[in-house]
From TrEMBL:
UniProt miscellaneous comment: Reaction proceeds by a ping-pong mechanism involving intermediate methylation of a conserved cysteine residue.
Protein name listed in UniProt: Probable dual-specificity RNA methyltransferase RlmN
Details of cofactor binding: Binds 1 [4Fe-4S] cluster. The cluster is coordinated with 3 cysteines and an exchangeable S-adenosyl-L-methionine.
Lineage per the UniProt record: Bacteria, Bacillati, Bacillota, Bacilli, Bacillales
Location of the Radical SAM core domain: 97-335
The protein's required cofactors: [4Fe-4S] cluster
Length: 354
């Protein structure tokens, strides 16, 4: 199977072109066609000579994803379901905010972490996405915006779709370098957030990368007993280890970290847990932001329901009183199966039923 051209960083493409007898400046031209003019066929790259176009066509594809479903929500959120060349389905979501257009990308087909509340973890990982397939999600959404003709650009990215990005680290990093590159899409690193369930060795590696991308950690519980109950990954990487890695990240980068905390009714949403969470984060509160997320119900996980609004308020106020900076995530696209993995798992069930 031919590889997606979007998977190559600028330097990798330059090296490849030189190895294949092409001039170095071709890389600038090809990237300009791909990311500025955004053509979808090599033959549309007008100033590239025929030999080079043939060479590219023989080795790469530009479009490897096929749009299978597009659901538009009343609030403007659009959920895309793409079929990859091997038939696997992935989800990408476009959300409109006052500050711009944000895209949520998928990094793996399924997820092996298997958190007890999550729709993505229902299906075991069948493979990692390569970096081209991750970049192409952004490009497809950008093409969708281009067709509307309003000059809109994908300005923000959240790596919060299906999969654990740090379990596909090298492809993730390649993806980040491609979309961030000044010669390409130029999506600012500070506008990109990667979310992890807490693979501590990779949090350390990420701290050492020379890139200003934001990190979010799915914490969801302030003690090991509770966290292990809802996220089995906590057995391998318990809270003490996680906090050590986070301290290393904060010392190394001096960048703010986001802690995600899903509020599950009568599970982790009591004032006692808010107090414990405040204590856990107190010594790093100047570089912490807690994102309280109202749970998005998943049919298969009916042991969980969303917290009551007054409990969400109490939780929030308890954190605020203890000087922990926090907010409650506004919801988007709940009418279109917005929780990560929901659309995909429903589509797969539908296909199986046929
Ligand atoms: N695997 C990574 C990134 C993908 S999940 C991670 O777990 O961080 C992105 C975020 O969505 C995580 O914080 C995850 O816990 C949360 N999430 C998963 N299922 C959810 C649901 N049903 N409702 C609300 N948030 C959910
Ligand atoms: Fe995987 Fe994240 Fe879902 Fe957990 S929450 S199963 S890590 S996608």
């Amino acid at each position: 199977m031919k590889k997606s051209i979007y998977g190559l960083t600028f330097d990798q493409l330059t090296d490849w072109l030189i190895e294949n007898g092409q001039k170095k400046y071709r890389a600038v031209q090809v990237w300009d066609w791909l990311y500025k003019k955004r053509v979808t066929q090599f033959s549309d790259m007008k100033n590239i000579n025929g030999d080079c176009v043939e060479l590219l066509e023989a080795n790469f594809v530009i479009q490897s994803l096929e749009q299978a479903v597009k659901q538009e929500s009343e609030d403007g959120t659009i959920k895309f379901l793409f079929k990859m060349q091997d038939g696997n389905l992935i989800e990408t979501v476009l959300m409109k905010f006052p500050y711009g257009h944000s895209v949520c990308v998928t990094t793996q087909v399924g997820c092996n972490i298997g958190c007890s509340f999550c729709a993505s973890g229902l299906l075991k990982k069948s493979r990692d996405l390569n970096s081209g397939e991750i970049v192409e999600q952004i490009m497809n959404v950008q093409h969708h915006l281009d067709l509307k003709g309003n000059d809109d650009r994908v300005s923000h990215i959240v790596v919060m779709g299906i999969g654990e990005p740090f379990d596909n680290y090298d492809n993730l990093m390649n993806f980040l370098r491609v979309v961030n590159d000044q010669k390409g899409l130029m999506i600012g690193a500070r506008h990109i957030t990667v979310s992890t369930s807490g693979l501590t060795p990779k949090i350390r590696d990420f701290a050492n990368e020379n890139i200003q991308v934001n990190l979010a950690v799915s914490l969801h519980a302030p003690n090991n007993e509770l966290r292990t109950r809802i996220m089995k990954i906590n057995r391998a990487y318990p809270i003490e280890k996680l906090m050590d890695a986070i301290d290393y990240y904060l010392e190394t980068t001096n960048r703010r970290i986001t802690f995600e905390y899903i509020l599950l009714n009568d599970v982790n949403d009591h004032v006692a847990e808010a107090e414990q969470l405040a204590k856990l984060l107190y010594n790093k509160r100047h570089l912490s932001y807690v994102n309280l997320i109202p749970y998005n119900p998943v049919d298969e996980h009916d042991q969980y329901t969303r917290s009551e609004p007054e409990n969400i308020k109490k939780f929030y106020e308890t954190l605020r009183k203890r000087n922990i900076v926090c907010g409650v995530r506004m919801e988007q696209g709940t009418d279109i199966d917005a929780a990560c993995g929901q659309l995909r798992s429903k589509q797969i069930k539908k296909e199986k039923a046929l």
